[in-house]
Specification:
- By secondary structure, this protein is of the alpha/beta class.
- It has two domains: 155 residues, P-loop containing nucleotide triphosphate hydrolases (Rossmann fold, 3-Layer(aba) Sandwich); 72 residues, no CATH class.
- The protein is 35% helix and 27% strand.
- The chain has nine helices and ten strands.
- The strands form two sheets. It has a six-stranded mixed β-sheet with strand order 6-7-8-3-9-10, sandwiched between helices.
- A hairpin with a 2-residue loop joins β4 and β5.
- The longest helix has 17 residues.
Length: 237
């Protein structure tokens, strides 16, 4: 679980969020939405421990994220960024195996349990048949599934994703979000992803977190849809 307590976040002389308090629970898929430049990526970076210039607290369970060292943090959360990943000489299985880095021995050698977890992660995202293929020979959607498998292999209770559908066509956007929903519910993960896809947020997520500077409105999806906050923030009729 992620809990924000009076979080104030920004950069330079701009305040993006001010005294925000909310929580993101395990077993739920949450969409993070907001206008361009509202601070969605900045917030995700703070939640991932990559930006510590904030006031208030970001709690992972009962611990403040700034108190966790890099190794401990890597066992608590996984981050999937928006960049296209094309690793020409590395098989999908090897890319997913990078998620086991926090648990391998000092020379990085995987044990049988690690290999089983890698195969399980590939199976869960439907990429077992691609395990020996290199990512430069795969579509954007297939590559994104591999990166999610890497996050799964990391065995963290929290997965954060920054615009995971940005390079995908419409059918693959919905398919990827169905996968994220399945992982949240069946694997009991706390999954938060930023998106510009309002229809996907409204139809496929358990809750929506709306950045409306300097506020963060976080409600169950049905309540958010009925609140009128989305229309007001985006200027929709």
């Amino acid at each position: 679980m992620i809990r924000l307590e009076n979080l104030t976040l920004g950069y330079a002389d701009r305040t993006l969020l001010k005294q925000v308090s909310t929580s993101f629970e395990v077993g739920r898929l949450t969409a993070l939405i907001g206008r361009n430049g509202s601070g969605k990526s900045t917030l995700l970076r703070a939640l991932a421990g990559l930006n510590t210039e904030y006031k208030g607290q970001i709690m992972l369970g009962e611990e403040e994220i700034r108190q966790l060292d890099a190794h401990t943090l890597s066992t608590r959360l996984a981050l999937v960024t928006t960049e296209r990943v094309r690793i020409a000489n590395l098989r999908c299985r090897d890319v997913v195996a990078l998620g086991r880095a926090p648990y391998t021995n000092w020379i990085g050698r995987m044990q049988e349990e690690d290999r089983q977890l890698v195969e399980h992660a590939l199976e869960v995202v439907g990429m077992s048949a691609f395990s020996d293929r290199t990512m430069d020979r795969m579509s954007d959607g297939e590559c994104q599934r591999v990166m999610i498998a890497r996050a799964l292999a990391q065995q963290t209770p929290i997965i954060l994703l920054d615009e995971p559908t940005s390079f995908l066509d419409l059918p693959n956007r919905y398919e990827l979000c169905r996968l994220l929903s399945q992982l949240a519910h069946e694997e009991q993960k706390c999954i938060l992803f930023s998106t510009h896809e309002l229809d996907i947020a409204r139809t496929m997520c358990d809750s929506i977190a709306l950045v409306d500077n300097p506020h963060l409105h976080h409600l169950p999806t049905e309540e958010m849809v009925q609140s009128g906050l989305i229309e007001r923030t985006f200027g929709l009729k």
